[in-house]
Structure formats: structure tokens, C-alpha cells
TrEMBL record:
This is Helix-turn-helix domain-containing protein. Residues 4-31 form a coiled coil. Keywords: Coiled coil. The keyword Coiled coil applies. InterPro entries: DNA-bd_dom_put_sf, HTH_17. The keyword Coiled coil applies. Residues 41-89 form the Helix-turn-helix domain. It comes from Sphingobacterium thalpophilum. Pfam families: HTH_17.
Length: 103
């Protein structure tokens, strides 16, 4: 075991810096906590399972603006309420631009 000796003032300075960093982290996360607490967010796999659609159909919904999403660290997330609203609206899953359903 290695023992390292440092001055008490240096140790106190390190402790104060760690406390300040912890406080900054708490303040930063406090702003975003209500956003995630009030709404459940789903990834693409959960949305596909919930709506019984393929990844490609989900991509079409995104491209056409039918299903809003948020991007975080190169990954898309969808609000459960938005997915539910699309399901309740009875959006045809394979509707082409001309309005006809592809079969």
C-alpha cells in the first residue's frame, strides 16, 4: 500500500472544489428533471412494439412530421403521449402521399 502525504490546506481546497462541482451538477440536473418526470419517453424499439410497426414505417412517420421526436446523444426519443395520440387518431400505417393505402 502506498501512502501519499499532502498538506491539509491542499486537501481542504480539493474538498471545496469537489463540493462546488457537486453543487453545479445538482443545479444542472434540477432544471431537466421535471421534463423527464412529467412525461415518459420511448426509444424507437418501444414505439415500434407499441404501434406494431416496422422501423421503416416509424422513419416515414418522422419524415412526414406525423410523430414528433427529440434527439439526445444521436438517439431519438418519443413522448408516450404523442405515440398514444397518433394511435388514437387512427393514422393509417401505410398511407402514401396520394392518400391511398398501400397493400
Amino acid at each position: 500500500m502506498e501512502v501519499i502525504a499532502i498538506q491539509k490546506s491542499t486537501l481542504e481546497g480539493m474538498k471545496n472544489e469537489l463540493k462546488a462541482l457537486l453543487e453545479l451538477t445538482k443545479n444542472a440536473t434540477k432544471r431537466y428533471t421535471p421534463i423527464f418526470a412529467e412525461e415518459q419517453w420511448l426509444d424507437h424499439q418501444e414505439v415500434c412494439l407499441m404501434m406494431n410497426i416496422t422501423k421503416r414505417t416509424l422513419q416515414t412517420y418522422k419524415n412526414k412530421g406525423l410523430l414528433p421526436y427529440s434527439r439526445l446523444n444521436r438517439k431519438n426519443y418519443y413522448k408516450r403521449s404523442d405515440v398514444q395520440a397518433l394511435l388514437e387518431a387512427g393514422q393509417p400505417y401505410n398511407t402514401a402521399d396520394n392518400g391511398f393505402i398501400d397493400e
